[in-house]
Design a protein that fits this description.
The chain has about 80 residues and is an alpha+beta fold. The longest helix has 19 residues. The termini are far apart.
Length: about 80
């Protein structure tokens, strides 16, 4: 399959990079808006991977991260 220069025509595709960025912001808000401030909680993302190029929007994006907290019930609620 030959990819076309779809970065020049983003209206023709669904951009998973843009979607991933919205997901990361929304997940960060779980802690800032829902966590009890006395329960230490961190959601971190260390890897965002899309196999596009500078002028090609990728077909998919992978996001990898971690949730850290001392409270197991809160950890289950986040997932």
């Amino acid at each position: 399959m030959v990819k076309v220069d779809i970065a020049a025509t983003p209206e023709l595709v669904i951009d998973p990079i843009l979607i991933a960025s919205h997901i990361i912001v929304a997940l960060q808000q779980i802690v800032s808006r829902n966590a009890n401030p006395i329960i230490p909680t961190v959601i971190s993302f260390g890897k965002i991977s899309g196999e596009g190029r500078t002028n090609i929007i990728p077909d998919k994006v992978t996001i990898e991260g971690t949730v850290r907290t001392y409270d197991e019930s809160w950890r289950r609620a986040i997932y």
